Amino acid sequence: MARDPRTAAIRAGLNTDATWNAVIPPISLSTAYRREDPAVQPAFDYARTGNPGRSTLAAAIAELEHAAGAVVTCSGMAAIDLLLHDLPFGARVICSHDAYGGTRRLLDARGRGGRLIPVYVDTTDIDAVSRALAEPTALMLVETPSNPRLRISDLRALSNLAHEAGAELAVDNTVLSPALQRPLDWGADYSVQSVTKLLNGHSDMVGGVVCVADAGKLANLVWWSNCAGVGAAAFDSYLALRGLRTLALRAKAQCETAAEIAAWLEADPRIAAVDFPGLPGHPGHELAKRQQDGFGQLISIQLAGSVANARDVVQRLKLFTLAQSLGGVESLANIPALMTHAAMTPQARSDAGISDSLIRLSIGLEAPAELIGDLDSALVP
Ligand SMILES: *Cc1c(COP(=O)(O)O)cnc(C)c1O
Fold this sequence. Notes:
By secondary structure, the chain is an alpha/beta fold. The protein has helices at 5-11, 52-65, 76-82, 101-112, 126-132, 155-164, 177-180, 215-228, 234-244, 247-266, 285-291, 307-316, 346-351, 368-378, and strands spanning 69-73, 91-96, 116-121, 139-143, 168-172, 190-194, 208-212, 271-275, 298-303, 321-322, 332-334, 358-362. Residues 75-77, 100, 102-103, 143, 147, 172, 174-175, 194, 196-197, 206, 208, 326 line the site of pyridoxal-5'-phosphate. GO terms for molecular function: cystathionine gamma-lyase activity; cystathionine gamma-synthase activity; pyridoxal phosphate binding.
């Protein structure tokens, strides 16, 4: 019987300290671990290869994601890159056309050397995905909800299509975290995420994770993580485990506040369009209800105005902080075209529906009425 995820997140690693019976697992900063016998491999040997806190965090996230195991890396990008190491030279990789800007930058850079062939597709369009999979493909990387437009891709349908075509499916689960979505339950082979965001939630560390459905594929990722030296540091693992303890509560409260703010924005004539999967008019609303346990903490808005107007509005915000990132306890505002998605070409942004004046909000844990008050004042010219 699987444990309730709230229990799993709280109990992970507790009462494991044999030296002092510390309740909270202590942080182990040592680079090296002493052997009793040179010929016997100890549980921990050298800190790049593994450290106890990183292992505890990996096991906890794997349990929440319903995975056979997980590899915790030093960033979300390192986690995505880890998926690419064993692909054959020149492998085709299909990716959601509105994926995170850094993901596109990585795939494009690998593509320039011929290492991979990245192909960008609107993964909410099943026919477009089928056409793209007609050519031999090694991996499909889907981001749902996509960021910043919050489009919802059908994970069950995409995993069936990918597997029929002989491709593996990886899902970037950063925006929702395992508290709100578990891609492996819908047939995905990998769930990757930036631990930096909702999972840690306190905006004080950078990390990533690859969760694997098939235990047989785990050893290879562990091998590459050690070989390339991309495992997470002990202190970052410690912070992320502490953040994970309250993930379920934070995610629930942030979803509730985001729903309240999205409804307020939708009713305001100064806003031309609101992207939020929780709104009944959102094209992915029914799918999100089926596939997710909440609608998430992100809202994107299009003002009824010009580019300069969007810049002015975010600069007038007093409670929201104008900064990159998402998922933390603090609310942030961002103009993707100028900030998070600036690495994309203008053409790629336009294909993905990211206008120069789109504003993305990440809703934190402040009082909903005060966040609405801040938006209301900032929207007054
Ligand atoms: C931030 C982010 C990443 C990259 O994670 P880092 O921890 O910053 O390396 C990948 N995917 C999505 C959706 C993200 O938001």
